[in-house]
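ok trying this again, last paste got cut off
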Amino acid sequence: MSRALQPDVLPVPFPIAGELDLHTFRPEDLDELIPAYLAECAARHLRDVRIVHGKGTGRLRLRVHALLRSSPFVRTYRLGDARSGSWGATVVTLR
């Protein structure tokens, strides 16, 4: 069976609802995933997005913030507060 037809590599529908939990993604996917997700949120006129990156060592958070800084869709971003994930999540306001 070719790799393209194997069930573990078929595309999975992903809801676009303003929250992206990165726990289910590989770090190497972020450079493509986050810009595409933000573009889709902007196309759906979602103004606020929450990206859950976890607390961990902080490397994932730093990568997320670097991608947000370079995104044409992002107006502002900040770490979450006590109700939105604290420093384990980033709250983004889109343009």
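PB: full thing came through this time. The first strand starts at residue 19 and ends at 21.
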